[in-house]
Amino acid sequence: MRLQRWRRGRSGAAAAVLVLSVLALLGGCASGPVGPPTLTWYINPDDGGQAEIAKRCTDAAGGRYTIATSTLPRDSGDQRQELVRRLAANDSSIDIMSLDPPYIPEFAEAGFLAPLPPGTAARVSEGVVPSAIEGASWQGQLVTVPFWANTQLLWYRKSLVADMGLDLTRPVTWDQIIDAAVAKGTKVAAQGKRAESLMVWTNALIRSGGGQIITNPGESNPKLVQLGLTDPPAVEAARIMSKLAKSPAAPPAFSTADEDANSESLQAGEAAFMVNWPFVWSKVTKAAEEGSVPADVPNDYGWTLFPSVRPDLPSAPPYGGINLGVGHSSLHPDLAYAATECITSAQNTAYYFESNGNPSARVASYSDPAVLAKYPMAPVILQSLTQAKPRPQTAYYAEVSGGLQRTFHPPEAIVPGPTNQAAQDLILGVLRKDRLL
Questions:
Q1: 306 and 366 share a domain?
Q2: For residue 17, what pLDDT is reported?
Q3: Higher per-residue pLDDT: 200 or 220
Q4: Structural domain includes residue 436
Q5: Does residue 46 carry a pLDDT above 60?
Q6: What domain count does the chain have?
Q7: Residue 92: which domain range?
Q8: Would residue 100 count as lying in a domain?
Q9: Which CATH number characterizes residue 167's domain?
Q10: Residue 384 and residue 302: Cα distance in Å, rounded?
């Protein structure tokens, strides 16, 4: 009752003074120091390298911002789904995100990426391998920041290839290594599983033959997308895949073989050749240190460029890795892009290569003494990244990859020509909404 009588007894002027006093007090509290903004970086799982780089760049920012990391799912497709769901809901917590290159056109076309500030593109492109620039772009413009760039090499066991008559200091073709493996009674390990790895292999073969899966990359209208899956380079790619899959050089369970299975096959000496990413080197050296393989096995590893399709054309090795995007709903896009410049510096990407085994997108990292000491094949990785080509750049990548995986699997069932036509018909039908995957 006291409060009611006080309210009734106060004049309007006195009440107004009280309200203003309260607002002034609240305003004074709100104007106090709030500290630097925290930028959230959604990272793919690794061995702690991205978290360490986040700490380094927080320290280097001098109080302008701090970087916190949030880990995405391990599977690339699951990473995409989580990011798409959050970005479609205008989640402002996504300041920076580690993106698989094939999804960049989709994110750019959907408007999920904040535009690069003036001058940023030139700075983050300087000294970067060409394949990473191409993979970070959409419709001719850089839309993400190259971070680390991956590629596949041709790995081999020196002891098993010593008397095959191949000069592995020079480029070799797929036909050469398949024929040599058959004659020797050994295997050629490649990824035949129905998964993204099959798309990676198929695309690399087509690009190495001078073709493309999508002949008008950058087309945003699905009904106007044109495919080159029935062109001669794609038919030749199908021939090579079929030849290996049906030959004695194909590993057991070839149609379910992934990167890890192939790595084990080379480690065990079951395969003389293998196409795979550089992680296999860290894997075999660790196995030797732990005693799960003989200590001299790493010394028996050799490496060279991804095999050619034609002797008169250099190979176009697979390109992979991670680029950094800034979310369109970030409250601090300029600071987020400033942070990406720190994250992708030559020093930090060399550290990430040496510590986590993920090759840098920056050329300068390949002359870093710590990198060269741990990865003696670094010069070949750099050469491979210079020749590498991305997978098809399209906002409809999931449909293209899914359709190709369905028709090109299992590899031993590939019929060059008819399989190519079936893949082209399915993908175009899906893009035109006439068929379903």
A1: no
A2: 37
A3: 200
A4: no
A5: yes
A6: 2
A7: 38-143+320-387
A8: yes
A9: 3.40.190.10
A10: 15
173 inside domain = yes
Task: Please give the radius of gyration of the chain, using alpha carbons only, rounded to the nearest integer.
Answer: 27
Amino acid at 184: K
**What gap in Å lies between CA 198 and CA 256, rounded to an integer?**
10
> Per the domain annotation, does 19 fall within a domain?
no
Do 377 and 414 fall into the same domain? no
Rounded distance, CA 378 to CA 362, Å?
Answer: 12
Residues 159 and 306 in one domain: yes
Do both 343 and 409 map to the same domain? no
Q: Identify the CA nearest to 95 among candidates 124, 66, 133.
A: 66
* CA–CA distance, 28 with 149 (Å, rounded to integer): 50
The 10s digit of each residue's pLDDT in 219-236 is 989 999 999 999 999 999
pTM for the model stands at 0.90
pLDDT for 8 beyond 50? no
What is d(CA 433, CA 427) in angstroms, rounded to the nearest whole number? Answer: 10
Distance CA 422, CA 408 (A): 9
pLDDT computed for residue 437 by the predictor: 87
For residue 35, what pLDDT is reported?
A: 80
- Phi/psi at 372 (5° precision): -65, -35
* Contacts for 108 with CB less than 8 Å, ≥ 6 apart: 138, 139, 143, 395
Q: For residues 275 and 259, is the Cβ–Cβ distance under 8 A? A: no
- Percent above pLDDT 70 for the chain: 92
Burial 209-218 (b: 16+ CB within 10 A, else e): bebbbbeebe
Report which secondary-structure segment, H or E, holds 334: helix 333-343
257 and 215 fall within a common domain: yes
pLDDT digits (tens, 9 = 90+) for 140-150: 999 999 999 99
Do 195 and 283 fall within a single domain? yes
State whether 326 and 422 are in the same domain: no
220 or 284, higher pLDDT: 284
Q: Do 117 and 198 lie in a common domain?
A: no
**Mean of pLDDT values over 257-269:** 97
